[in-house]
Design goal:
The protein has 151 residues and is of the alpha/beta class. The strands form 2 sheets. A 5-stranded parallel beta sheet has the order 2-5-1-6-7, sandwiched between helices. A two-stranded antiparallel sheet has the order 3-4. The chain has one domain: 3-Layer(aba) Sandwich (Rossmann fold). It is built from 5 helices and 7 strands. It starts with a strand and ends with a strand.
Amino acid sequence: MNEVHLFRGIPGVGKTTLARRMTNFVLAADDFFESPEGYKFNPMNIGEAHADCQMRFFCCCETKAKTIAVTNTFVKNWEIEFYLRVANSFGYSIFVHEFAAHSDTLRKCAKRNVHGVPLEVCERMIADFEQIDEKAYSFKFTKVTNHVVKV
């Protein structure tokens, strides 16, 4: 059975590191900001970056890629909903990986994230983080919540 793994959590928790251990198909909105000169984030293009990630995800599903991983913060439920619905429509087994970051590890996550997201933004993300209610969906997916940040 083909699988989709969606990784959610604040920057620096290890989403991409774990995803790369699972598959070569690792997608993220941040990919949009990569260039030969390195990572160049522009908040004016965040919508375009997410649309690009969604399009690439859809194409991977359409071509029946065996294992696909998407690593985004997915702080709000609406941010992950597209991926859940598309994966379900293509018959994928879906796994949502949630990374727990606590106040004692928050500073280390903010310091080690590769995109330079400041501590204040990471704190806001944790405060705004919405839990996914599996009962809200008419299809099944597996929540993997035992990921704890190792620092």
